[in-house]
Amino acid sequence: MFDQSRLSYILFGLILVIQTSFCHKISTVKNVGAYCANDTSLGDPNLNPIDESQARLINKVENGSLYQIGSGEDQIWLAHVYGNTGYDFGYAYGTLLRDQIHKMVPRAWAHFEQEVIDSLSKLKLPKWFEDIIANEGLRAALDVQNELVKSYMDEEIYNEMRGIADAAQYDYKEIVQLHMLGEITRGKIYIQSWYSV
């Protein structure tokens, strides 16, 4: 039997899932993506030059390579992973980006917890209650979302997340919860870069 505090967290999570399913506004941001043959009525084509500089190998492991691509201030990392299973892909990714995962995940949690607290501030709730919702409510909502979509997701996605967690030596459940952020918000989330390449 559930204790009352756990049940309230689950109910809050369910309310958050339902609320986020119905409250998205249509974005008014112009399409600044690459020009392609589809309808471009959402914005101007991307006329930025294509960077043809050589990718620089940063690290190579079994089933994967990490490259730095781009030039000047427009540089990103590109992970190329391969294998026979999702676990192989995830293990290569987790091995290549272990340090970045350990830096990014806590910062991502802090960011999203703050987003929840900022939304709750309009309700003028006590700080201790906001902290409980931000720390337990978001994770509970993500757990509920995972249960709702689990039967629709390919098992290899979970195997890939298990591989990432094992290789990066990071908590599997937290990796799954972070993966569910896109599900719970229907892709309407903003993740910024918290570290430079």
Written overview of the protein:
The chain has 197 residues and is mainly alpha-helical. It has a domain at 50-184. It has helices at 4-22, 86-96, 98-120, 127-149, 155-168, 172-184, and strands at residues 56-61, 64-71, 74-81. Strands 1-2-3 form a three-stranded antiparallel sheet, with helices on one face. A hairpin with a 2-residue loop joins strand 2 (64-71) and strand 3 (74-81).
From the structure above, extract its key features.
197 residues; mainly alpha
Helix content: 40-55%
Residue share in β-strands: 5-15%
Q: Main beta sheet, described?
A: 3 strands, antiparallel
Overall average pLDDT:
75
The Cα radius of gyration reads: 20 Å
How many DSSP-defined strands?
3
Stretches with pLDDT under 50, minimum 5 residues: 7-36, 190-197
User: What is the structural class?
Assistant: mainly alpha
**What sort of overall outline do the alpha carbons produce when their principal axes are compared?**
globular
Major sheet strand order: 1-2-3
How many angstroms separate the termini?
A: 48 Å
Give a nutshell description of this structure.
By secondary structure, the protein is mostly helical. The chain contains six helices and three strands.
